[in-house]
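A note from the maintainers: we've had questions about how concatenated examples are separated. There is no special marker in the raw files; a new sequence line simply starts the next protein. For clarity in this README we add a label.
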Amino acid sequence: MAIKTYIQKSTSGNIKAPFLLIIGVVIGLLGLLSMIGCHNKPKQVFTYKLQLNMTEKVLDTARILSFNFKSNDFKEKAGFKLVSNLTVDRQNRTINILLSTKANTPPSNAPLETAATLDSPKIGAYKLRIHFKDQILPGALTINEHSYLLNLKDNSSISTIADTLNKLPLKSIFGTLHYYSPEAAPTIDKFMASLKSLGAKKQSHYPGNYHFFTINPDGQIKQTKDKGYAYTRHFIFQYDSNRAALKALVKRFAFAHSMQLLITLRTYDGAIYNIWSFGK
């Protein structure tokens, strides 16, 4: 009886040992294959191109220059977002902009875009270095009394929309009136007259590109037709009066004439008044 029991135990042990050994070998092989797969996994390479555009806003008397980077290429951006970091080497008068991608959770269908800001830029000449896709794109930024002049060396990764941006006039308000029929003309004239009654004044400005508008050589705002609208009227005034009264005026006209007129008014310090802003 004892001999039989010993044989049963011995046989059971001999069966389990090879089985456990096989399981261990399989797990080891799976782990090795996983490591090899991770090691050989190709690195994500982004081939999208960016557009660079400068904009400006003024807080009190301090100006803030933004370098806006954007790509409309949707092929490779799922799950990623574009980020930027700007530093200034004042000793060498060099502006460094580092562009990189980070995981975007949840994934978005919005274009890849980011803005790098330069606070209180001083008049003078600067070197510009944009770090992007393991390369350094050289350029220069010259700031004078009226404008920012960007000179980015030709490359296949980043193109500039405009090389020159004029500084926004202090205490200015500007915007657009979009409409679909000439019948809106009396309403537009009434709105302009109401702005002037609040203290808005017309004056000449330095010619050139201001991003939101363009000033002609005669110092007056350029009238252009915006896409998606039958008619467009651009305007700019100097305004240093009651901001609440200005906002109330735009709100009143925006809602009273919403079927025939779309008003967008901006201030030099970044405020936007339109029919959507009043719902916030």
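[label: protein 2]
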Amino acid sequence: EMPCTASISVPQAYRERGAKIPKTEQRGITLVQLSTLADLVQRVLARVELGDAFNHDERIDWDTVNLYHMNTHFVKPLTARFKCSFVEVVAQEAQTPIWFVSHWWGTPFQ
């Protein structure tokens, strides 16, 4: 369960699985879908104190949140009951990406 459910309701877009996309190469995320997740993360971090398990439980805030934090506290809880990828929750059909971006998850998200 997401850490925010007591103070912020889970957005409707994340309450049901959107699509089954068997081919991982068709699970590209759109900028809008990524921005919507970022908005949720920012709202939660403004209200709920989350600790960084890898950094002496230091508080995670919008300036320091990275993809490791987002995966642990948001993506995994949102996808757990569906047992699927995040894109399969938010997409209505396959989304073949145009670009592939490789990055280190430890970089601050924003």
